[in-house]
Amino acid sequence: MTHTTDIPRDHARVALPAHLRTALQLAELGLPAMPLRAGKLPFGNCRACTRSACGDRPHMKAGGPCECPAPCHGWGAATTDPDILTSPAWAAAWRQAAAVAYHPGGGALTVVDLDDADAIAWARENLPATKTVATTRGEHWIYLGTMTSHNGVRPGVDIKSALSYARWLGPGTGRTAPLPDAVRALAVKEATLAASASAAVVPAPSGDAVCRHRSPAYLERGIAMGEQRITEAASAVHATVYRTFLAVLSAHGWCGCLTEAHIGRLFTAAQAKGESLRHCEIAWTNARMKLGM
User: Fold this and answer.
1) What percent of the chain has pLDDT over 90?
2) Distance separating alpha carbons of residues 118 and 103, to the nearest angstrom
3) Is the CA virtual torsion 81, 279, 55, 39 positive or negative?
4) pTM for the complete prediction?
């Protein structure tokens, strides 16, 4: 496997969509690639996954690749097989693709995603120099080595490696350094904090919950208010997303009327503000834990 993020320059697949050509180049480097639609979201081309109804979670057996015939389910769809990337099942996705993503863990890489200037300043003081790639709001620091992915390990810092995907933004600059213990330690700290939060979960109420959704308008108004709150957030987006999820679950999550489609709408609003899918999943899980669900 080639452990580098420098794209070869001798590709001549000029008749293919630009994003597909990039994906094929990444595949040659041993980086499993996949298309992304607008909002940095994966495609969902089977009935169970349309409009992210499945939550973009891989449908797999024993940790293998995505079982669906078309690119969906996030990192589980990423592949280095050019026959799959260029197959008819993927053709529509590549025509509509807004970007290309790759599975860092599948290429023996870890991406430290730094969301803002403060996170970058912290990394420069605490992490060894490595290959860096500029992002819309910050930088990706890329290390050689694989670990478990974690979001929110520090303010503005996410770790993307195994079971995750990162948007391809170019080869970057610098030399890829080995994955340092300092990055692995961040994940250990995050896991410890999550365990502490789990111990303080509020117990779920006993007995059958009473449904207050006497009309669809009640639930629809709650979801719409949640979308609006997230969309209008001018700062502290992470915290706003978590508080909104908590409020929605508190009001609408006990009786079973809240569907995957409703959750998908909230996730879409959060991702439009720059949140990653992984952070949305963590925030949703933490809100459920807080309420004892």
Assistant:
1) 35
2) 26
3) negative
4) 0.62
